[in-house]
Structure formats: structure tokens, C-alpha cells
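User: Fold this, then the next.

Assistant: Folding the first:
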Amino acid sequence: MDERRQQFTVGVLVFGMMLVAGLLILMNSDFSWSPWREQYQLQVMVSQAPGVAPDTPVRRRGILIGRVAEVQDTDDGALITINIDHGKHVKTNEVARIQTSLIGDAVIEFSPTSSPAGAQVVQPGGPPLHGMYNPSPLDLIANLQGDLKQTIISLGSAGEEVAQLANQVNAVMGDQDVERISRLIASLEEASNNFASVMANADEVLGDEAFKTQLKEGLRQFPSVVSDAKEILQVLEIAVRSADENLKNLQGLTGPLGERGPEIVDSIESGVDNLSELLGETALLAKSLNRKDGTVGKLIHDDELYQKLVGTVTQASSAISDVRMTINDPEIQRRIRQILYNVWVFTDKVARDPARVARGIVPRNREVPLK
């Protein structure tokens, strides 16, 4: 009886443990093995994929979104086929990174590399996505082995050089150089005393309140001095730039002058010859004008002819004045206006009736013969 009860208790305990184990498995399982679970595939191309195998977890920002279905070795690298759960997605601004732990377990993590603005969901069937492998600490240590070895060798060489330097110092610092070292220490002590004296003198100078005030004023004006110096340098820079431009312009002027030098010299010589000829003709004209037997010479040198010319000009001026006075007379102006009015009336009548002119020539009582 007791044995059956004990067997029953053991059976209940085993059944309970199996039930708890099943519940724990169900709670921690992702049900990727379920045949009715809907998934789609994406492909990732990486240069190397250590530790990646089927069922390797694939995460996006730390959240499980699928598992690796297949890993293929190609000439361009490792082509990884991933099963993504329905409802999960990867965007174009994200890149796949392969990370491995110290024990060799790998995981594929999709993390963003740029702003999500404008990013689109990656659709299945497209070209393989770009991925990369993040070296693990063990890889870094393996890569550093050569550097560590070289560093240790360098440290050994440095230790040997330090030992040689210590031997040389011991050889120099022997018993024979004790007196020299004593003199050196005495010189250092004297130099420190001199330095203390100099600092005391400097403290006396810098401790003066008037000097401090002047020094503060000078330091206060120093920014304005620097600003003035900057302005002067800017003006000098502008002047130098202007001088450079002037030199360039002068070079552009002297260049064509140098190229056309012979033509310019010939033109100048021709101009000088023409000027000389013009001056000669001018001198000849002046000589002709100065001759007394010429027309202009007689006008200049003959007083009688000059007086006659002056008289003629005077009479002409007087006649013009008389005419002006006559014209300015109101009675004459009235008569001139009357005459002009009569002429205007006559011409207007002629323009209106040209036959009136013929009637004025032929008498009205003259009979016209009949033909």
C-alpha cells in the first residue's frame, strides 16, 4: 500500500515537472519551427560571417525579427539568407552587422546608419543588402599579437639602452668628478641667489603703485593699439594690392609698346617731321604777313589805309544805328504794320479769288468780241 502510494506520488511529481517544463518551453520559444508561421526572405552580402549558421538570431534594434535560413560561400563573400517574420521589416537606412560573443555565438543586428527620414521598407526579391562584420575582442587581441610582440621587443631594447646610459653615468660620476659636482652645486646656489636678487629688484619695480597704474593703463590701451595696427595693415594691404594692380596694368601697357616699338618710333619720327614742316610754313606765313608790300602788311603798317578802314567801319556802324532808330520809330512801325496788313489782305483775296486779278487788269465796260 505504501509502495503504491509512493509510486503515485512519484508519478504526480514527474507529471508536474513535465508540465512546468512544457510551460517554460512554450513561454521562451519563438515558435520558429511552426509550419504555419508566415515569413519572407531577405539576403545579406558580407565579406565574412564567422559563427553564422542556420537558426542564428536576427535582431533589429535588439528585437528578434527572424533567423538565418542559409549561408552560402561566394566569390564576393558570404551570402546570408534570412527568414523575416511577417509583420517585421527592415528599412533602407539600416545595415546588417554581425557580432560575436567571447564563446563564438553570433547574432545579426540591423542598426540605422543615417536619419530615418525618407527611408523605405526593404521588399523581398531585391538585390542583397550590404552587411559588415564587427570584430570581437578575441579578434582584436589576435590582431594585436604582432604589435604586442614588437612592443615587447622595443621595451627590451629600451631597457638595454637605459642600462648602458646608467653605466655611462656611473663612469662619468666617479670619485674623480666629486669636486666638479661640488663646484656645480655651488654655482647653482650662487645662481639661485642671483635669481632671488633679481626677483627682489623686479618686485621693487613692479610693486610701485604708479608703475602698476601706468602698466594697467597701457594694457587697457593695448587692444586699441592692436585695432589701429590692424587698420594700418588693412590700409597697407589695400595699397599693396593697388600697387600690384597698377604694375599689372603698366605691364599690360608696356608689353604692347615693346611689341610695337619700331612702329611707334617711326610714327613719332613722322610726326616730328610733319611738325617741323608745319613750323616752317608757319614761319613763312608770319614772314609774309610782316612784309609791308603785302595786303595784310599794308593793312598793318599803312596808317592811311587803316584810318580809311576804321572810317568805313564807323560809317557802317552809324548807318546801322540810323536804320535801327528808323525801325524803332513808332510811326514808321505803324506804317510798316499797315503795309504788311494790306499785303496780307491782298494775298488773301488773290488766294480766295484768283480771277479778281484778271478783272482788275481788263476793264469791266469793255465788250468781248464774239467769235
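Now the next one, as you asked:
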Amino acid sequence: MAKEFTHLDDRDNPRMVNVGEKPVTERLARARSIVQLPAEVWDALQQGEWQTKKGPVFQTAILAGIQAAKKTGELIPLCHPLGLDHCQVVIGLREPDEVVIDCTASLRGRTGVEMEALTGASVAALTIYDMCKAFSHDIVIKETTLMEKSGGKRDFKRD
């Protein structure tokens, strides 16, 4: 079967994919963003136990990521508005200077939740940038990657 862009009609105009006839299945996706912090930010945050004048960095980023995942259909034009059954953002440290953000989204539905997981991880990373930029603007959001998805036509898992 030839691959095609599903968000284009036969005249190449944008369209939202009709998922009405697709079967309802358990859908899950996990995405990861990595934020690289310069030494001055890393050191300042560890001394302050990851607190800034704006508040707790990780807790704020977790809430922002969950909120963003829930609003993906409003942010990305052709995404379906979805009622997520579950969304979790987990943030960890990878020495010497990286923050690893994993966002997992799931639901029982007719369309996947990759975009929700990717949006959640991305906005959590942006929130960390926003909360830490007073220390330095040399913060790099290195990547945002789909790590796995299941429940649709094709499952995917990154090694």
C-alpha cells in the first residue's frame, strides 16, 4: 500500500481525517523531550532544589505538559479534540546537564494520541526554558521524539 498524506483531500486541500468508521481501541503514546542546561543553570537549580522565583520548576513543567496534551486539538489545526483517559509527565535528570521529559498519553478511541504526547513533552520543555531563562538563554531544547505508540494500524517503538 502506497503511503500518502492523510490530511490532504484529492485536490490537495487540508482536511481533518474522518475516523468515524475506525474501530475503538486502546491507544497509547510516549514522547520524550531533552533539555540541555548550561552549568550555571544546572548549579543554580541544584542549590535551590529546583526552585525559582516563579516556583518549582519540575512541578510547573509537569502541569504545563499535561495541560498542553489536553489542548492539543486546539493547538494543532487538524488534530481531533480528544478526551484523554490518562496523561503523565515524568521528569528526570541525566548527568551532567540534561533534563529528560517523558509524556505518556492514553485513551480508548478511534485515533492515536501521538500528537498529545509530543505536545505535552514539548510544552513541558518550553516551560523549563521559561522558568530558567533568567539564569541563562543558553538553554537548548535538543529534541522531541516519539518513543512509542500502540493501538492503531501500526505499533511503533524506538530502540
